[in-house]
Structures are given as C-alpha cells and as structure tokens.
C-alpha cells in the first residue's frame, strides 16, 4: 500500500539512473536540513523569506537545473523591475507623471505630452533626475511602483481585494513604459535572457491587447507586435542556439463585454492562420471572481467550432474562486471547451469530476505558487491544494506568472516552493525531472520541435547530473 502510494507522487514513476540516485540522496539530505530551519521558509509569505530562499543550497541547485519551459507568464510582467527602472526609464524622451494615489504613468514623446486626468504635470525624467540630490532613492521608489514586494505583506494586502487592486494598478503604470516600440523590443530580448540565465529553454507568453507606439505618437497594429516577438526570438536564438523559442497566447481581459471578446476571438483565429508559428492560442485573463465566467462568454468561445476554425484554448480557471459561484465552475467549463491547459486550477481539487477529466485527458495545471501566495493569500504552502494534485500524480507544470510584480526572475523560486513547500519530503529528484519534462510535453510546440526540445533538454539534464552528483 505504502509503495503504491509513493509511486502515485508526481515523478514517483520516474526511474532514476545510478548517478541520479546519488544526486537524489544528496538532495534529500539538503532538503531535510532546510526543512528543519525555523521558521520553515515555505510556511511564510514569499516576500518575507525570499532572502532566506536565495541562500538555500536546494535553491542554488534548482537554479542550475535545466527546467524546460515557462508556460504561464504574462507579457507585461516578464522582466525584472530593476531592468525597467535602470534601463527603460533612463532612455531619452521618457516623461513621467505622478498620480494622486501615489502611482505613476510614463510616456515617451518628442513634445511635452498633454496632461493626463488625475496625474501631475509631466516631467522629463532626465531633467527631473538632474535636479535630485538622491537619484538612487528616487529609482528605488520607482521600483516599488513596479512590484508588489513589501516586507510586511499581511498588512499591505489584508484581503484579496487589496492585493488585486494594487496588482491591476501596476499593469496600468507599466504600460506606457513597455509598449514604447524601442523599449518593447529590448524588453522581449531581456525577458528571454532572464529565463535563459535561469536554465529555461522555451517560453509561452500571455499577450494582451495593448498596441506599441513610437515617439511621434504612431500606434502600431497588433500584428506588428507579433512580428517583433518572432524577430526578437529569432535574434535571441542566433545568439543562443540552445534556446528553442517562444510562442504567444493571445489574451483578453475578462472584465470586457461578450461582443469585445467575440471580436478578439475572430482576431485570434485570423492571427493563428497568419502566424501559426508564433501564435499558440487564446486565453481570458484578469481577476476571475470579478470578471465574466467562461460560461458567460460561451457565445464568443463557441465561435471557432461554429466557424470550423482552429483556435487552441489555454484558460485561466479556478484561480481565485472557491465559493461555488458561477465563476467557480470555470474549471469544469474550461475542460468542456477543450482547454489544453488549466491556468492555476487552484479550485480543481474541489471538483472531483473535473479533476478526473483533467488527469485522464492529460490537461495539466499550470501551478504558479508565488502568485497564489500573493494574490490568493495562501501563506503556508503546506496548505496549498496542489499538495493533493502532486500526491495524485496529476499532470502539473510550474511557472512564475508575473515575475516583475513578484520581484523574481526565472522559475527557480517557484520550483523551490513546489519542491520544498508543497511537495515536502515526498517530492524527490524524479519529481523535478517529471516537472521539467512536463513543461516540454505539455507545451504547444509541434511534435517535431517537442522531440528536438526533449533531446536538447536530456543532454542538458545529463550534464547537470554529472556535474552535481559528485559529492
Ligand atoms: O495570475 C493572473 N491571473 C489573471 N490575470 C492575470 C494574472 N497575471 C496577470 N494577469 C492579467 O494580465 C493582464 C496583463 O496582460 C493584467 O491586466 C492582469 O489582469
């Protein structure tokens, strides 16, 4: 019985080579030590223990581990807040204005922009900085505007409402900065680099509706951005031949109307036809329990099958709502609409039928534990519902959701939380191996590219094992 139960665990069926067994026993000892630290880091909010995690030997090993693909990241929260402040805001012609409630807005422009409602007069950042006595303090305060990071998360975000309000506000603050054409291009490159530096080889990015602009006020078509994603990825691959690439999941905010979502679906169908290599499919984003449910958008979401067109869905579902409302049925409806993955699926364990369906159909949950700590207020990861999914051997992939806002880079922090916090001692090297392989297996890559990615990953994995199993 015990053996049977162990083999259910994610990775429980993965057979380890002798070298892997050696690394597993080292890893096990490291983990036991780390779990004895008091207080146990994953029992605390991520913001309070990030500095502890950073020093952890298990974390350092996870950074070196080839983790496969990042399948759930939002394009407007892809790079570190440091890069945005120290690189993007230092470019010429960058204007800033300060909102009454303390937030900021940016715009790149040749001329002084028109005043914006609720915002101070615009200042050009180079002039503004030249007049400051402490530029570092100013830059640090800008960084604070781009992330939810705080030493005291419980006070700053006592409720989900408070966390989500600030969360959505940051996206608005970032938009004038990251949608400026020249910044946008370097931003994508930097995003790929941060992932690559964390040993990730492929990315699927949720991309919203915002359009890029230029200094003279020209606004580009959405297709322009898709071409940038493709070209910058190509450029990155030329410089890093062992990177596989990136694809885009066209996304629309669920606070919008059915007719707007219908229009977006039509655009997505057309984009998937025109850019099949870069466009992977479609998703609805934004806070789930205050936006429209999947059922609410059923007329729009049925369009592809009515028109007999291909459009792959990657729905966020069961992220924030556990209360048995219509929104709580999103996990079921996502599966009925044939979603190919479930974004978050935090509520999945409460729906045994949906859970069974997701497992038997091989529809993985995109688990983003840091996001759940910040936005769902799950402080102690030992209470995370994914513990049940893990011990059930449920298909899971790990991702970081919004690295800018959570003040992380790469996936290693999320892997740490899953491996040490949610998985506990039952998670082992086989778990890590399966999670990394899952990220390639459940990606939207063609079967040929998947095979190539898997081979490349295996090579990197073997090297990782050989280098780390010595002692
Ligand atoms: O974890 C998430 N769940 C739902 N929506 C999200 C999450 N992260 C980001 N966005 C949404 O994506 C938009 C930017 O593209 C943001 O407005 C935000 O609502």
Classified in CATH, the superfamily of the domain at 62-80 and 206-462 is Metal-dependent hydrolases
Gross morphology is globular
Main beta-sheet annotation? 4 strands, parallel
Q: Count of DSSP E strands?
A: 11
> What is the correct CATH architecture of the domain at 62-80 and 206-462?
Alpha-Beta Barrel
Proportion of residues in helical segments: 40-55%
State Rg. 22 Å
Instruction: Identify the bound ligands.
Output: inosine
List the strand order in the largest sheet.
1-5-6-7
Proportion in β-strands? 5-15%
Low-confidence stretches: none
The number of helical elements comes to 22
* Main CATH class of the domain at 62-80 and 206-462: Alpha Beta
Structural classification: alpha/beta
* Average residue-wise pLDDT: 95
CATH topology of the domain at 62-80 and 206-462: TIM Barrel
Distance between the termini: 33 Å
Index terms:
alpha/beta; 4-stranded parallel beta sheet; binds inosine; globular; 49% helix; 11 strands; TIM Barrel; 471 residues
Give your account of this protein's structure.
- This protein is of the alpha/beta class.
- It has 22 helices and 11 strands.
- It has a domain of 276 residues: Metal-dependent hydrolases (TIM Barrel, Alpha-Beta Barrel).
- Strand 6, helix 12 and strand 7 form a beta-alpha-beta unit.
- The longest helix is centred in the last third of the chain and has 22 residues.
- The protein is globular and about 65 Å long.
- The chain binds inosine (NOS).
